[in-house]
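Long-time lurker. I teach an intro course on protein structure, and each term I like to show students one example going from raw sequence to a predicted 3D structure in token notation. This year I'd like something fresh instead of my usual example. Would anyone be willing to generate the tokens for the chain below so I can use it in lecture? Attribution to the forum is fine with me.
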Amino acid sequence: MCVLFHSNSRNQKRKRNNKVTKAIVHIIAGPTASGKSARALTLAQDLGGVVVNADSMQLYNGLALLTAQPSTDDCAVVQHRLYGVLGVHGQTNAVSWRAMALKEIREAIECDLVPVVVGGTGFYLKALMEGLSPIPEIPSEVRILAEDLLERVGMEDFFEIIREHDPDFAAKADPQNRQRLVRAFEVIQHTGRPMSYWQSLPLEGAPDDLEFNVEIISPERDVLYERCNARFDQMVAQGVVDEVAAFDELIEAGKIPPECPLTHALGFQPLQAYLRGEMDLETAIVLAKNETRHYAKRQATWFRHQM
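-- Reply from a regular --
Happy to contribute to a lecture. Here you go:
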């Protein structure tokens, strides 16, 4: 395994610099199945810390096994925060996650615990450390209209609409990232300016009371792919098909929206297709593993260029 390490501090404790005390926050980042959660757990044990989640899917309560949330045993070793804290109807973004994460970080510091933030949602981590573009608050009705348009035209045409209005953003965006595309569209609709304009402005809100140690876990590509495959096999052995089946029953009963964020968790849609008789289980598992590997590759590329 290759571990890239970057440190902005000289020690693991708070330090005084020109009479300003800054607390150290450890960031453990990397692609899915890289081993970052295990690293964060060990580090939190060693430092007397608390683990804070920075994975967008693990924020939701409903598919703990499929989204690889920490086990009961892990949670008994050290405290874990921001796992399964949102209902299936909830929506989040970098702004709301950052507010939640800073609250947990500062509460941990007040209790003399070392914050260890871990996850693969790189945009969240950058927002935490560097601040955010000064985008005005968007009314909820604008998001509803954006979601409605996406449902009517489909993901491909929706992406083309965004590309037409904001080619700079589209050139860098994942055309399958529903949440970010909806966000880009609602910003255009509400502000009259593209997302790329707001992102070009100086960032606001970098925390001046915190200092970040960043550790990126980056296995070699073949090792990472093997881990992706092995982890999904382990999920199947632990009962992930039954977990998805129970969730899909709630969707069919109208108790969960069919396009809620958790339906975009890695592996959900192939397993859902199997449960609805659209393919056999072996094919669904192969597709889920492919989906996981492709996502891990995109994450690894993002971390290599952005952090």
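Some talking points for your students: Strands lie at 2-7, 15-17, 20-29, 49-53, 79-81, 114-119, 210-218. Confidence is low (pLDDT under 50) at residues 1-18.
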